[in-house]
Write a structure and sequence with these properties.
The chain has 176 residues and is an alpha+beta fold. Helices cover 20% and strands 36% of the residues. The N and C termini lie far apart (72 Å).
């Protein structure tokens, strides 16, 4: 009797089985992108080259299945008059629900210290979960949401943005 289990190949030439056995578009995207990316596999074994190739595979998978991509970019501006403007860019091309919070460190949860003020533009604030610290926002179709954070004193935060289960952290938001 034939074995009903299927074999999945991530790096082999058998595209007839691998990408379709997952029954998940997000997994299939990574499998297909990995197979296609073999054409550009670096000859170098340097960590930086391997990591760059991994980022290439993720970018390719995001383009194959944009609905499952979490393409978020966060820009942090300079401090001006005790305020810093942060811009969140969602490259999906559709309205997205983002979970946004201020963290004390990259990889951290919600901060205990609130800033003096937070104002949003370009996004609809669906819910303020914790005043001045945590929000649920809906991006416009152009994907650009801006928040202006004000604080008097010395403090460093990171802006965390979650979309479809992936969390992105900004560079340091430094108040001096």
């Amino acid at each position: 009797m034939a074995d009903p289990r299927r074999h999945t190949e991530f790096f082999g030439p058998d595209l007839g089985r691998g990408p379709f056995s997952a029954s998940s578009p997000a997994v299939a995207a990574v499998q297909i992108a990995t197979a296609v990316a073999q054409l550009r596999t670096p000859l170098s074994r340097a960590d930086a080259d391997v990591l760059a190739h991994g980022e290439f595979i993720r970018a390719l998978a995001d383009r194959l299945f944009p609905d499952f991509a979490a393409q978020i970019r966060i820009d942090v501006g300079p401090e001006s008059a005790d305020a810093i403007e942060c811009t969140i860019r969602d490259d999906s091309g559709v309205n997205s629900l983002l979970h946004v919070w201020l963290a004390d460190a990259k990889g951290g949860g919600e901060t205990a210290t609130a800033p003096g003020g937070v104002t949003w533009s370009g996004a609809a604030v669906l819910e303020t979960v914790t005043a001045l610290k945590r929000y649920l926002v809906v991006t416009p179709t152009n994907g650009v949401a801006t928040l202006n954070i004000s604080y008097t004193g010395d403090r460093t935060w990171y802006l965390a943005v979650s979309r479809q289960g992936r969390v992105f952290f900004s560079s340091a938001i430094n108040f001096d």
